[in-house]
């Protein structure tokens, strides 16, 4: 059974930092593309950052230079280091995995972790 479990969310002041982590199980993590999404109240879910199985990364313009996505295939975890946080970063953050098995695409989501940036 595929499971993605996020952790590390919380309340932080503007300008502060948080590190989110997503622990994956039940998938061949090394071949999966891993992503972080976020969804603020009354807004659509948006892609924040992606890291491919080969380590290529991509970021939303709004977080470039402030957020860093990384993965540890041995631990089957993907992290999101968030620096210089702004109130606009307040959202529920979700981990997503995309992979192919037997030529079929699969996708799985975590339950999310709340990040609140406020003074």
Average pLDDT works out at 97
**Computed structural class:** mainly beta
Helix content: under 10%
Radius of gyration (Å): 14 Å
Percentage of residues in strands: over 45%
- The helix count comes to 0
Q: What is the N-to-C succession of helices and strands?
A: EEEEEEEEEEE
Please summarize the sheet with the most strands: 7 strands, mixed
N→C terminal distance: 40 Å
Number of strands: 11
Low-confidence stretches: none
- Global shape: elongated
What does this entry look like structurally?
This protein is mainly β. Helix content is 0%, strand content 55%. The protein is built from no helices and 11 strands. A hairpin with a 5-residue loop joins strand 5 (46-51) and strand 6 (57-59). 31% of the residues are buried.
Which short descriptors sum up this protein?
single chain, 119 residues, mainly beta, 0% helix
Task: Provide a brief overview of the structure.
By secondary structure, this protein is mainly β.
Write the layout of secondary structure elements.
Blueprint: E1 3-7, E2 10-12, E3 18-25, E4 33-39, E5 46-51, E6 57-59, E7 67-72, E8 77-82, E9 91-101, E10 104-109, E11 113-117
Parallel strand pairs: 2-11
Antiparallel strand pairs: 1-3, 3-8, 4-5, 4-9, 5-6, 7-8, 9-10, 9-11
